[in-house]
């Protein structure tokens, strides 16, 4: 199905943080494959960071994608950069959001320029970037679509709490003792933003990075509440991993010592441990985690690094996090510590990987699910606790290691040991694996030609090129 590239141009406006930019790029690829020009607009430094971090992604294969490297105007640049570095320490995003609003003017300029060569401009923007796109709604022949990079379950839960409505109680009442409160996950300033997002009327539709096989009931609930069309176009991950069921059939994208080590391990014998790039644990917690992994007697790959800093995620000058004395020697035969970048998708796709201990991040969850890998959850911030409920209580493809209700407490080694053992060696853990594998197979069928998600993508393309 080809689209007329002179009819419409698509402008992507992600929130400039890696976990948000990645699904935007994967959606850009899909849209560009229909011969539609895509303009990817973000802060220049973050665009460059994104390109460096891509695993096995040759952007030369997507000539229809053009990157626009913007900068925050000089009057606010120093402040914004400082806040960007500190956002991971104190969760105070609001000043940073205010500085991002200054991207609205160059975004309008891009739209005006595009309209000299095409009939319409379709803007797909991160829900967080709502204020940035407000200026374009007055431009004739510009449409805006909100892209939620979090789960439908989280969006539904947040809207439910903000509205105080009894709507969808049949979905949430059975989980009421598990779903976290909005106030426990987000700063109070975000409450007004969520209300504004829920009531925003200037959108032409909404997109979510999920699909019916994962979140059908929650997509339906959101569709009922929306007056505009809604599409679940996920999972938006590296397409290589959506095409092959067998690891041997997938091209080996990245050469890394962790992959070489995995090649020598039995099937489903290794737990992959990684908590994303936005937080660093305390020294005390690192010690408990190390002892828990050691006492579990399971094979593991542990990604152990400081939280990423802006533009610094691939430098070799990374502070070394201290481990218990003698730990690395004692676990040398069955564990490996990675203090640098690792090819996460390749690790999760490897047949030797049998479990994933992680922060319940949405992108990481979908990567694990697509690979049929069950999970042990340890939510850290924002949407993580909501994903934790979906993973462990709804889909039942994982178990809890750290409960959000005890988020301020130290997780002791014995709890980590028990969680890892249960996931990797118990009947319960194997049942989770089988559920994850079944979902993985259903999702892969759905994104192939003739599948439900593929048809939905085609309906979205037809909608924006009408």
Automatic annotation (TrEMBL):
Q: Name one GO biological process term.
A: glycoside biosynthetic process
Q: Which SUPFAM superfamilies match?
A: UDP-Glycosyltransferase/glycogen phosphorylase
The UniProt keywords, alphabetically, are: Glycosyltransferase, Transferase
Q: Which residues form the Glycosyltransferase N-terminal domain?
A: 7-237
**GO molecular function list:** UDP-glycosyltransferase activity
The protein's matches in InterPro entries, at most eight in alphabetical order, are given as: Glyco_transf_N, UDP_glucos_trans
Describe the family membership recorded for this protein in Swiss-Prot or TrEMBL. Answer: Belongs to the UDP-glycosyltransferase family.
Q: Identify this protein by name.
A: UDP-glycosyltransferase g20123
Source organism (scientific name) = Nicotiana attenuata
